Here is the input.
Amino acid sequence: AHLGHEWLAECIYTDEGKRENVMAPSPQRIKIKSEEHVLTPEDIIKVARTESPRKINAYFVEIEGRRFPPKQLLRAATKTNQPFDTGVAVRALQALGFKVISLADSPRTE
Here is the structure.
């Protein structure tokens, strides 16, 4: 069972066709107000495996075939009670190598 970054990227980005440089090579420092959190892509994936996706308003991240709002993933991974806007979550997840998709740009799959 190969559980390195390449395997995770392959699972998340199966429809992308390219896997190089998809996941961040090292932990990222994420600032939320006065708090600083150090997160890895694996932290986000672990959260996604235990959470039920909430309603998507504008953006989502697809992990293992399920779509999550960026704020839900970041809040669960950091366990912060601080308020933060969607832009903070989008930038943090992008820094970790995740593709954040706008609902307006997403083709309907229903």
Remarks:
- DSSP finds four helices and five strands in the chain.
- The beta strands are 28-32, 35-39, 59-63, 66-68, 100-102.
